[in-house]
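Format notes (please read before filing issues)

Several people have asked whether sequences and structure tokens are stored in separate files. They are not. Every record keeps both together, in the order shown below: the sequence lines, then the token lines. Line labels are part of the format and must not be stripped during preprocessing.
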Amino acid sequence: MRNVNLQVLDENRVRGDERQELDALLAMARAARTAGANDVEHMDGAAAAFNYIRVADLVSSYRHSVKTNQPVLDWGCGYGQVSWLLKRRGVNVQSCDAEKRAAIDAIPQLAAIPVSYMTDPVRLPYQSESFSAVLSVGVLEHVPDLKGSLKEVHRVLQPEGKFFLFMFPNRFSWAEWIATKRGISAHPDKFSLRQTESLLQKHGFRVEKKWRRNLLPKNLTGFSPAFKSLYGTYYRQIDALDRALCSIPPASWFSGVLELIAKRD
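Then the structure lines:
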């Protein structure tokens, strides 16, 4: 009985940390909006913000499982929310982006994170083989030179280093189809799973794991704050149902995003 109670206490502690982080992310988004930002829809609802906690938990779990604290690159870090979450988990993370976000100074926790800003749209400001892992959290689909950027990711990764590709837009996503019809899609380029695997393989990566997520939409672009708040009340139930649905074809084929872990050959 004692072991069961300790397990319950530990689970409650983790859930408490999760809720604390989620509230912090939502507060960060509100601060950025108050400062005039219009680029935080990925973080201004609980269902959307929880995506970043999910990513940080997965990367942190992997890092601790292989018992390494070699540097990880948060490529295209944006406001730095994933870097912040990873640092809280003890991950040695470096942050990089193309430009400084205008509203970043309104978020002290994120403004304090050192960020390397790129002087070239493709070339990363690091020496070859600098990182044991590189993260792309909704980044690769937005770069001006996709092939050139994959070459750069390969260059800065150490041999057998990991490339974590998160939130890569699915060509067959029902939500993306509707967003495109409404003229509010942020992804002019979308990809099939087969196309994504082929792209990675052609640039020197071997895909180790792949899955689909966000059959149930998370960002809710274009929806009212009131609806996002109501939807976000059930963020854990939504995430659990989404995970289940995304494992069942053919429903999974229409998920919002593709996610993969690949190793540098």
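For reference, the curators noted about this record: The beta strands are 72-75, 93-97, 115-117, 131-137, 157-169, 205-213, 257-264. The chain has one domain: 2-264.
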